[in-house]
Design goal:
Helix content of chain A: 55-70%
Oligomer: heterodimer
CATH superfamily of one domain in chain A: MetI-like
Largest interface: A-B, 60 and 74 residues
Helix content of chain B: over 70%
Shape of chain B: globular
Number of strands of chain A: 4
Number of helices of chain B: 13
Order of helices and strands of chain B: HHHHHHHHHHHHH
Distance between the termini of chain A: 30 Å
Strand content of chain B: under 5%
Chain lengths: 371, 316
């Protein structure tokens, strides 16, 4: 996990570390010979050549930065907070005085000025301010959920694959349980119950309206999607000579897992990372739409869209603005993630004959669908 | 084979048992979730609440409540807390809408996923491939409820080409049924078409470099025949196993978002409404149903593949 894709880990005891698990890295067609170049450096070179992926990655980065600067925008441009109500106020647009929310309940459309840049919602709240704060919440949930998924899935996948036997049996059953549990139903059930009462586990206490509630739910739901392929890879890796070599040198299980096996599954984890962020953001939106995600009045893209859908015939901007932002952010990270996978898996671009050991694992990784 | 099936059945039963306990506990853990208080209404006296609690068995120990509920579920006469209707009857009423949605959408996404994926692989690297890739990624990145709401706004509200949601039973009027289902089918399929075409594309590209494909070409078999008989056939295994899992999830109430946007009153929507009212019995039944669909279909797929492909060994 601690491996920077750009600087391959050289602290291990000479384990083979190649991009596609344990296959030798193919020479770049027409490029310099691959000898002497680490797989991650090679991957970075390929990624840097993929301008489309970089552009979409930059788009995502810009959205992230904008959203995390939400308080600056709110204080210095819009002069209002995300939950501040302006229903009864009026605003000057092009020399005219207009109601923020008309007597019939219609919110104002985009003014293209500092206040109500993108209009207001039905409660007279500044849409642009809520869009940025909502994005910050959605992204935070996405990042926290992904961190939870990746850490737990790595631990579960490594231990199950390395120890096999009873440990594997128990962990595999738990994964099957999460896998078979209807994802959205699990999300709503946990979301509703936790949103009502919060939860206290030992020293950790979460309030019902905390961001951590949806983040933890989404993080848990996606564990099997990452842990299963990791486990499959580890089952193969533990039989390799370099693991035997480390064991003969007296390394313990923990050390072998962390130093010999983990670096070899790192590329799979890197491929999963952007995909999981994208899926976590989408699932959060779905849960919020059903009232089991981020709780009002806190904004998120999902809650804003579902608020907007109720007013769609009269004020479609309430749906379009957060919807477009959500799609752009998820699309950005998806296209970037696609580029990362292509860069780490040269076979995706260069069609060289290679028998797939991890066929099921790879198709599973692309299928993290919530309906 | 027999040993595999027996082991698989045992593990399926274990998973379902664990899922039922987990669901039961989730709702037990809810503070302010006392069903007796909720059923008695706002003006109830403590005596009334106590009476409801006793007649429904809410003051029994948790394990006993669990056993009673599960017994009722298995014998089919489980009653929901809020509406106090038979859950099985309610689900039977909701099932046609969910089945219509999932079977239709399942066929659509399988067909277009294969067509787009194959086309994308044949044209790999060219403009068509790139355009299809972008479309697939846009499809994968759009939340289904947003797509549904926008489609309803433009096609049902503005242009009135399609009806504004709702479900018409097939037995009542087949044409009207089709008319009401087309938009939900397309909206639910978009995401899956994106995923499936991407998976199939990479599978086809991998299969194309296999030795037996080269052999087939060397034997002088036409390109079209090579593609369909040799490449596509062998690229389909992961697609079909994916399809059975996704299809099971959709049947088991996974299409909640689509159902609620189009107001289809399917199983998923029933479950979502029940969860909101903290109504445990319907949620338990729907969750068990969905989980059973997933474990049964995935077991069937595994056995089927072991028959079709002798290289696959059954373990588990």
């Amino acid at each position: 996990m601690a491996i920077d894709p750009a600087t391959p880990d050289t602290t291990g005891s000479g384990a083979i570390r190649t991009a596609g698990g344990d296959r030798p890295v193919a020479a770049e067609p027409g490029g310099p010979p691959a000898a002497g170049i680490g797989p991650y450096r090679l991957a970075r070179r390929r990624l840097l050549r993929n301008k489309v992926a970089l552009a979409f990655g930059a788009l995502f980065a810009v959205i992230v930065i904008l959203c995390f600067c939400a308080p600056l925008y709110a204080d210095h441009v819009a002069h209002t907070g995300p939950n501040d109500n302006h229903v009864t106020e009026q605003v000057q647009v092009g020399g005219e005085t207009k109601d923020v929310v008309s007597p019939t309940g219609l919110p104002i459309g985009p003014t293209w000025h500092g206040r109500f840049l993108l209009g207001a919602d039905q409660n007279g709240r500044d849409l642009a301010v809520r869009l940025l704060y909502g994005g910050r919440n959605s992204l935070e949930v996405g990042f926290i959920a992904t961190a939870i998924t990746m850490v737990l899935a790595t631990i579960v996948g490594l231990t199950a694959g390395y120890f096999r036997g009873v440990v594997d049996g128990v962990l595999a059953r738990i994964l099957d349980l999460i896998w078979a549990y209807p994802v959205v139903l699990l999300g709503i059930a946990l979301g509703t119950s936790l949103a009502l009462g919060g939860i206290t586990i030992g020293p950790i206490a979460m309030k019902g309206n905390s961001l951590f509630v949806p983040a933890v739910i989404i993080g848990i739901v996606y564990i099997p999607y990452v842990a299963k392929p990791i486990r499959g890879q580890v089952l193969g890796l533990r039989e390799k000579e370099f693991v035997d070599a480390a064991r003969v040198q007296g390394a313990g299980s923990l050390r072998i897992m962390a130093r010999e096996i983990l670096p070899n599954v790192a590329s799979t984890l890197i491929v999963f990372l952007p995909l999981m962020v994208a899926n976590a953001i989408l699932l959060e939106a779905g849960l919020s739409y059903l009232g089991a995600g981020i709780q009002p009045p806190n904004p998120s893209w999902g809650t804003m869209i579902s608020d907007g859908i109720r007013l769609i015939p009269s004020a479609i901007h309430l749906t379009f603005v957060p919807g477009a932002m959500l799609v752009l952010a998820v699309l950005g990270i998806n296209v970037f993630g696609d580029g990362v996978r292509d860069a780490l898996d040269p076979r995706a671009r260069v069609r060289i004959a290679a028998k797939r050991e991890d066929e099921i694992g790879e198709s599973e990784m692309e299928v993290m669908v919530e309906h | 084979m027999a040993r595999f099936i027996v082991r698989r059945l045992i593990s399926m039963a274990l998973v379902l048992f664990a899922i039922s306990i987990l669901t039961f506990l989730i709702f037990q853990a809810i503070p302010n979730g006392d069903p007796a208080v909720r059923m008695a209404g706002r003006l109830a006296t403590p005596e009334q609440i106590a009476q409801i609690r006793q007649s429904w068995g809410f003051d029994d120990p948790i394990w006993q409540q669990y056993l009673t509920t599960m017994g009722k579920i298995l014998s089919g006469d489980v009653i929901s807390y809020t509406q106090q209707l038979n859950v099985m009857t309610q689900i039977k009423e909701a099932l046609p809408a969910t089945l219509s949605l999932s079977i239709g959408a399942g066929l659509i996404w399988l067909f277009f996923g294969i067509v787009f994926g194959l086309f994308s692989a044949i044209k790999a690297g060219r403009f068509t491939d790139r355009a299809l890739t972008v479309l697939a990624l846009v499809g994968v990145s759009t939340p289904v409820f947003l797509l549904g709401a926008v489609a309803l706004y433009f096609l049902a509200f503005k242009l009135t080409i399609f009806p504004n949601g709702g479900y018409v039973p097939l037995t009542q009027d087949p044409i009207d049924w089709l008319y009401h289902m087309i938009l939900p089918w397309i909206v639910l399929s978009v995401l899956f078409i994106g995923v499936y075409s991407r998976v199939l594309r990479s599978n086809v590209l991998d299969t194309m470099s296999e030795d037996y494909v080269r052999t087939a070409r060397a034997k002088g078999i036409g390109e079209r025949r090579v593609l369909v008989r040799h490449v596509l056939r062998n690229s389909m295994i992961p697609i079909i196993s994916l399809w059975s899992l996704d299809f099971a999830a959709v049947i088991g109430g996974g299409a909640i978002l689509t159902e609620s946007v189009f107001n289809l009153h399917g199983v998923g929507q029933y479950a979502a409404d029940s969860i909101q009212q903290l109504d445990v019995p319907p949620v338990l039944v729907v969750v068990m149903l969905g989980a059973s669909a997933v474990v049964v279909l995935s077991a069937i797929t595994d056995v089927l593949f072991a028959f079709l492909d002798p290289r696959i060994r059954l373990t588990g």
